[in-house]
Structures
1.
Amino acid sequence: MTTGRFGMFGGRYVPEPLVPALEQLDEVRQKAAVDPEFLAELERLHRTYTGRPSIITEVPRFAAHAGGGRVVLKREDLNHTGSHKINNVLAQALLTKRMGKRRIIAETGAGQHGVATATAAALMGLDCTIYMGKVDTERQALNVARMKILGAEVVAVEHGSQTLKDAINEALRDWVTNVDDTHYAIGTVTGPYPFPEMVRDFHKIIGIEAREQILDLTGRLPDAVIACVGGGSNAMGIFHRFIEDADVRLIGVEAGGEGIESGRHAARFAVAQPGVLHGAMSYLMQDEDGQTLESHSVSAGLDYPSVGPEHSYLRDVGRAEYRHATDEQTMEAFRLLCRTEGIIPALESAHALAGAIEVGRELGPDALLLINLSGRGDKDMHTAASWFGLIEETS
Amino acid sequence: MSVGTAQVLERCRAEGRAALIGYLPVGFPDLETSIAAMVTLVENGCDIVEVGLPYSDPVIDGPANQRAVAQALAGGTRVADVFDATRAVRAAGAPPMVMTYWNLVLRRGIDRFADELRDAGGAGLITPDLIPDEAADWMSASERTGLDRVFLVAPSSTPERLARVTEACRGFVYAAAVMGVTGVRSSVGAAAEDLVSRTRAVTDLPVCVGLGVSTGAQAAQVGAFADGVIVGSALVSTFFDVTPREGLDKLGALTRELAAGVAEGRAR
């Protein structure tokens, strides 16, 4: 079957008990997509709750270190809850109510999607459970506290690598048990159809706004649009509106971790083969037998062994290109933006900045780069402070 | 041609009872013991063995099976080990059905996996995360090799899904009797009987019920309305926190209890 596929990627590799819920979700979201009432409600939330449209900011002092051209940031970090994740979650929470469900669950890596989901649940009166790998609950303790303050139950998952992948396993187990009254709000453009397409559609507003804004500011389209790619939702969100602009390079930046040769990274496109994980066929870090390999990144949000299927498609057809930034390059880019522009980015987004520094240097002073600054770095202060030796380790 | 699941289920039906189908993962608690355990199942009255292939991300498995497969993988279990297990089960006299998440088959190559499984005495595959909609390549590989293909139906399945899934099955239909992951449950639930009758309404294939059975009494209860009773987590759990020898003894005893359960099921 070809429904829900991007070329050979995507599909619906799930246990049969979930199929009716996926069919219901697909039906409800397709109806909602053309329902003026739903669209008006979502637009109202974007405007009066999230703070859309998010602004763009030109960053010349940063750009001086990135080849000397012009660099513009799309400020998803300024959204309510601090990242792009809220765009998707508000829409899925509205769908949850439309489906007559009273409970919403989610996985989270860095905690941004978990915080956004807990926020939407509080706003709309839904019960909420967030699954988070135990390792991530430790490195993102502040976000765990935020979710709990907002009324969500946070479950620390202690299986496997205790990161995002295992949180998704556990969320899927919850969903298959409680699917009658529970919606699983997947936080990125992965998972079984219709999630990759639906989540992209809920984020494409990023690119729609940014394209108009950069045309207003500069009078032309950017040479490249750059975004970090874990599952890949912020990247699909900003890429989508530019796909038909053939002269605009779409560049995804994966987590290079400690370097490709170390094996400790999440640069799927650098090493991986297509495979199936969490309901979708996509590039997947796996061993010879097809067992999932553990990924690694300084940023919890990019620490995932697979990637959204549409990215795999865009890569294979040559429309998007993917590179990676190591933990070290990322932390340098993080510090650079803080020091030159007074903007503290999320470590995920700092990968996009690191990629932009390279791309800017390749393209030189005539370049115009648009970067999706997908989240803010408050949550990463502990990691950053340890990295730069700014605090004494207490343990 | 070796005996397939359909013939075994037919024979059980002729005996006026449900079949007992036992699940154990390869490599737990270690490779040698796991194969001895599967043979123990057959020797103590298990009609079909569901040979589990350990996978890193078993999303429809509960805590007991997760613990077992994690241990199997940590112990170095490889996909190819499954074929040693199917040979042993076949030699012991029962058809082995391999239960596997799909990426392991995909990675090896669907045709290659099918050929190797057939050559190792395997009867077919149970595929918990492959639905017929995504199974075109497996449909043709199983046609070519004569392997059974067992997909799942669930209480949430609509009549349209029941028809679609059962049409794709060969051998039997796996009815996941309660919504949720695998694991022992104190009651097997009325939803199971309803699901079996809704499934029978759309297919003549045998309908085997899984998820939750752990005692002879439950096996009898389910066997009264199903063509096969699938037991997993309870069998796996016999190896927790004991020596392999003790585990095999406990396993043998539990298997006899379950076999006695299915034997009395229809008599009541």
Note: The first helix of chain B runs from residue 5 to 14.
2.
Amino acid sequence: MSDGFEITEQCSGNRFHCEPGQSVLKAMEQQGLKCVPVGCRGGGCGFCKVTVLSGDYECGKMSRVHVPPESRACGEVLACRIYPLSNLTIECRPREVVETARQQTTTKSMR
Amino acid sequence: MRKGVMRPGHVQIRVLDMDAAVKHYTDLLGLIETDRDDQGRVYLKAWTEVDKFSVVLREADEPGCDFMAFKVVDEPSLQQLEKDLVEHGVDIEQVPEGELKDCGRRVRFKAPSGHTFELYADKQYTGKWGITEVNPEAWPRNLEGMKVVRFDHCLMYGPELAATYDLFVNVLGFYLAEQVLDGDGTRIAQFLSLSTKAHDIAFIHHEEMGKFHHASFYLETWEDVLRAADLISMTDTSIDIGPTRHGLTHGKTIYFFDPSGNRNEVFCGGDYNYPDHKPVTWQAEQLGKAIFYHDRVLNERFLTVLT
């Protein structure tokens, strides 16, 4: 296991291994952990929003409704669309807070 | 079809990455790419559909559904429906012929649930894909993936179900096929149909307006649903739930997500209705069984994960 990174989720204390190129959420699911809620796994629904407290990572495409640029800049991202480049410490906010955030977003209809 | 609204015609879905989306909808579902336009939109159809397209993909920075359209029998009916919508107090927008390639003019409006719908009468008739019109074979041999038969319906999540019911039933001529009522008799889910199908459009109550739960595609058999499940695993596609059976409609089903997080369903079977049938009612306290007939428990992801 020389390759890969260790992910620590701060609220639960869960630690899990993530392969290079693997999303944090997929690594968590594969190891049977549930510290981050699993939604669409495609960057679309915002269910798996976490805050990255430390470490480097790359981002895939995520819905702008759930991850506007200002959130992305402060590490509020979707676990299904982050790929670690180092060990990471993440925090999964309690669901009620996520829900409030979801209700505050407005969905633009078209264009 | 009391008012000339005939059937679901197309759905425009927003995707984060067009290449990944096209691969999903063609290689996995088995839709056929029929065209692209200068906006970068990709047009797709299922093989039994007679018109040029039923699914349009548009790349955007948030996934979801732009609009769903219903085909109307003819232009005079479309003109009458336009008048009826205006009289009902609905703001309509005229979308000119050709805005979607090879599609006639569309009448666009927003339902009280926050979803955008369209009516149109004309689209290029290209015939069923891969088989001849005269002496047709049973199916084309070069279909991919799940080989879906047709785009069947959408399920939308939003508020104002009663006003949305009024619009769809009294103005557009849908009928209520199935419903979920809470303890006060308030309708929290409505499955509306134009045909003998269990639903052509469905709505479930949700506080936020205009949310998209899924677009659904029809398969012939339970074996096809199991084969779809196999393909979902083989391609490491994000699964939601299934294969299982719904209580509502009694359809046999599996749910999964496209690469942008839009939910898809493929299903077979399901109840049928004729005009002398009464709506089927489920009580909200039986919602677990109504949604997942085997597990009989609600699944939070199915109820709350939306685009």
Note: The first helix of chain A runs from residue 24 to 30.
